[in-house]
Amino acid sequence: MDDVQPTLEPLSGGWSGETFLAGVGAERTVVRVYGGRSLARGPAAPEVDAAVLALVRGLLPVPDVLEVRRADPVSGSPGLLVTSFVPGVRGDLALDGIREDDEALARLGRGLGRVAGLLACMPQPSTGPFLDGDLRIGSYGDQVDVGGVLAARRDDLHLADGWGPSELDGLEELAGCADEVLSDVRRRSLVHSDLNPKNVLVDPTSLEIAAVLDWEFAHAGHPATDLGNLLRHDRRPAYVEGVVAAYRERVPAAEGRRDLLDRARAADLVALLDLAARPGADMPLDPEAGRARALLLAVARARDWHAQPD
Questions:
Q1: Are residues 187 and 251 in the same domain?
Q2: Shared domain check, 280 and 195
Q3: How far apart are CA 236 and CA 241, in angstroms?
Q4: Fewest Cβ atoms closer than 10 Å to its Cβ: which of 126, 174, 211, 243?
Q5: Are residues 229 and 286 in the same domain?
Q6: Is the residue at 165 inside a domain?
Q7: Angstrom distance (rounded) from CA 140 to CA 271
Q8: Cα–Cα distance between 244 and 112 in angstroms, integer?
Q9: Is residue 134 part of a domain?
Q10: Which region among 155-159, 164-168, 196-200, 203-207 has the lowest average model confidence (pLDDT)?
Q11: Are residues 79 and 97 in the same domain?
Q12: Rounded mean pLDDT of 110-136?
């Protein structure tokens, strides 16, 4: 019998270049190597991600964790997380295929809204990043609200093309309004923080959610954060209505009032600020940051968080 040679192929999607599909014969797994941008998260990053997957397993569809290895600063070996392979189609690609099908858009929207609603109901004691495999919560310091994040990112935006005093003042006004809207909900929950169609796998026929992936930005934060992410760029009515309806079915009734879209847009300002202030966000090497900067600029000019780029 011929020896079966293992294979290792980069997975498409995302910009880290750290995730690979490994295969030995018919067996396939997904290998995450914690190098590059993940180094900033420290040696405990694989343990944090594995612990988050364990926390949500049974409530949400996620891959099984097969192996976890902490980074070794002495030897220089990177951290490693090996998970099961889940078949399916990336959600953004599925959306492209149903662009004119309102029923299908609503069905996929409802599946994503259920995920956001379940996460919003997983309570956490405070706001902050996860520090270790026990999911101890750290602190964001002064960047605990929209105003604090804007203060930390303002200089980076000031240096970007298109940003002047009027746009920055508009964003300052919106940040104050956002923090007021968000303060209506004081509890904190588990936040995926990058919950958008490209980070889920769906069954191509039923459009059911097969797996929620890429938990590297997970933290404890405001329950509306993931809802804002889901509704950031795709504003098609059937999709939006599906997402919001499913989310409302799961969150407490007091948090599902008609201002839910306002709360989602307000919560999403934090992620937009982080993305838009990245170095090189105007360059094609980081298209997601570029889209965020264009959206944030439109929002700042209109002084309306529902605004969109022309």
A1: yes
A2: yes
A3: 9
A4: 126
A5: yes
A6: yes
A7: 14
A8: 9
A9: yes
A10: 155-159
A11: no
A12: 98
**DSSP string covering 128-155:** EEB-STT--B---TT-SSHHHHHHHHHH
Q: Which two tokens stand for residue 180?
A: 């007021």
Structure confidence at residue 161 (pLDDT): 78
- Residues 114 and 41 placed together within one structural domain of the fold: no
Report d(CA 16, CA 101) in Å as an integer. 32
- Predicted confidence (pLDDT) at residue 12 exceeds the cutoff of 80: no
| Model pLDDT, residue 280 | 58
Distance (Å, whole) CA 286 – CA 35: 18
Q: How many domains does the structure of the chain reveal?
A: 2
Of 84, 118, 149, at which residue does a domain stop?
84
Check pLDDT > 90 for residue 238. Answer: yes
The model's pTM? 0.93
Which residue range is the domain that position 52 belongs to?
7-84
Residue 1 belongs to some domain of the structure:
no
- The C-alpha angle 135, 141, 145, rounded to 5 degrees, equals 95
DSSP state letters, 8-70:
EEEPSSSSS--EEEEEETTEEEEEEEE-GGGGGG-TTHHHHHHHHHHHHBTTB--PPEEEEE-
Domain contains 2: no
Residue 166: CATH number of its domain: 3.90.1200.10
Distance separating alpha carbons of residues 17 and 255, to the nearest angstrom? 38
Collapsed DSSP state (helix, strand, coil) of residue 116:
helix
Distance in angstroms (rounded) separating the CA atoms of residues 291 and 120 = 26
5-27: b or e for each residue (b if 16 or more CB lie within 10 Å)? eeeeeebeebeeebbbeebeeee
* Whole-number CA gyration radius for the chain: 20
Q: Pick the residue with more confidence: 14 or 299?
A: 299
Which residues, listed in sequence order, are joined to residue 200 by a DSSP beta bridge? 212
Nearest to 45 by CA among 69, 22, 63, 66: 69
Q: Give the pLDDT confidence of 28-73 residue by residue, as tens digits.
A: 999 999 988 888 888 999 999 999 999 999 999 999 999 999 988 8
